[in-house]
Structures are given as C-alpha cells and as structure tokens.
Amino acid sequence: xxxxxxxxxxxxxxxxxxxxxxxxxxxxxxxxxxxxxxxxxxxxxxxxxxxxxxxxxxxxxxxxxxxxxxxxxxxxxxxxxxxxxxxxxxxxxxxxxxxxxxxxxxxxxxxxxxxxxxxxxxxxxxxxxxxxxxxxxxxxxxxxxxxxxxxxxxxxxxxxxxxxxxxxxxxxxxxxxxxxxxxxxxxxxxxxxxxxxxxxxxxxxxxxxxxxxxxxxxxxxxxxxxxxxxxxxxxxxxxxxxxxxxxxxxxxxxxxxxxxxxxxxxxxxxxxxxxxxxxxxxxxxxxxxxxxxxxxxxxxxxxxxxxxxxxxxxxxxxxxxxxxxxxxxxxxxxxxxxx
Length: 339
Fold this sequence. Notes:
Elements: H1 5-21, H2 25-32, E1 35-40, E2 48-49, E3 55-56, H3 58-71, E4 77-82, H4 87-93, E5 98-99, H5 107-111, E6 115-116, E7 122-124, E8 126-131, E9 145-150, H6 154-165, E10 170-175, H7 178-186, E11 192-196, H8 197-205, E12 213-215, E13 223-225, E14 229-230, H9 234-253, H10 260-263, H11 270-275, H12 282-286, H13 292-300, H14 303-310
Parallel strand pairs: 1-4, 1-5, 9-10, 9-11
Antiparallel strand pairs: 2-3, 6-14, 7-13, 8-11, 8-12
Helix pairs in contact: 1-4, 3-9, 3-13, 9-13
C-alpha cells in the first residue's frame, strides 16, 4: 500500500515544488466550497463507496471532520480514489487537498517527496494472512511460500527484509491493488497475502467465508498511518492535524456527537471550553470558525466513536483498539493541549 521511494521520486519530483509553493490551500478550499480528499479505491471499513456512491469508513470520517471544521458541513467533500501508484502524484499536483489513505509516515516521504504528516490516525504494522486449512500458524512457517505483494511498495521491502533476516525464501506474486490481491489470494495463486494488518482484517471481512482465513500473529514492521498534506502550507497542516486531535481529545474528555452542542455552552473543564470555542479564539488562530471542533465532532463522533463504528470489535473488521487506545488506556492516542 506504500509506494516506493524510487517510484515516488520519479513521479512526484516535477510536481512537489509547484505543490509546495501553493501555500493557500485553506483559501482554495473556501473558494471552491469543497474539500478534495484522496482516499483508497475501496477498502471496507476505511474508505469505500456504497452502491449509491456514498463514501464511508474510518479514513473517510477524517475527511468529513476536516470539511465540517473548515466549511461547516461534513458533506462538502469530493472523494478522489487513489491507488498506491497515484496517491502521491495526486497530492503533489494539487488534485487533492489532503491524502487520507492508510499511508505510512516515513523519513523519505517527508524529506524527499515533500509531504507532511500532521498526525497519526492509526498505528499499524505489516502482517500475513493464510487459509486456515493450510495448517500454518506462524509467519516463520512460510519458508518457500508464494506471497501476494503489491510491487513498488515499502510492504515489498519489509517482506524481503523479514525473509532474509529469518533465513527463508519466498516466491513473490506481483499485484497492483488490494482488489487484485484479494482475487489472486482467493483463487489460490499465492499461499499468503501480506499488507498492513488492518488492511488484512478489512480484506478478510469482505471475503465470502471470512472464517476460512486467519491473520498470523507476527507483525513485522511499524506502520504509522496518517493524513498527508503538501510541504509549504503550515496553516493547512495545522487545520488537518488539530482537527484530528480534536477528535482524540473529544474521546478523552467524553465529548460525543450527541452531547457536543450542550457542552459547547460551557463546562467546569477549561480544556473542554477552549476546545469547543466557549473560551478563547483557537479557531481564529487557524482561520476557521471558533466552533470548528464542535462541527468536527458532530460530523461523525469523537475518535473512539469513529473507530468503533467503522472498524471496531463489533464490526465485521473486528479490530481491537490496541496501540490506538487512549493514552489513559495503555495506547498511543494522545492529543496535545488545547491552549
């Protein structure tokens, strides 16, 4: 799911400078009246359209929150499907205002491809999925296996490193997209499928018989996934990042889609009052209305509500919070102070 440095450099180099130089994304969005959000071409639970073309999912919820914060309406989003090969070009060229597409923050993407990751909305890691009747229970039993892998990605590099470090061999089965990988894996073209563990869970949930497949316990990499924006527009990056943190803080302080309007009238907690615009002028500092966080939380709920509704343990995806739990619950989700 993550385009390689080599490919990204070749495709984006001629576009990144122009994209970074256009430091007026907020003005563009306001003038256009819609946020152009780059999303996955279709990953159940994260970003996928229904039969009527209505998009939903964990990543889509952040697109909606940003639109609500800036434009006051979560529906004012144009969803632009992007593949692993096209997503960085779409961002660098200005086709999209932000990329919310299970994209890993890496050194080269920030320094070479000239992107910023204002926040991490999902802490992930690369895993493996196999058929249950294969008898395989560990990735270390995959010596000599055929593995479906998207070419030109960091997932591909992680796979090579893992097998080499464990003295194993494998046969790569090249695929271009998650949809193709799903088809190949179901058809028996490969013994295992590898990508981000959350992506494996989402892919499995869409199978005709999900119970016939298991995700192996090994996680072989760190994949901090988050929204990406262009270098050179710090104000827009602030808006995207702090909108996400508003959702995280909302969960920590018990601010939900249902009670946010009432709490916005004032509470005994100064942090909540600042967050919701009852005190101070945090919105004005970014060029958005002071009730920006109220609108963002109303769009789809706080971070916990969004997680549970789209990919949580009660959904077909079935993901536990794990590292994505609040810091007070042993996880890594932590919003900086609103002051």
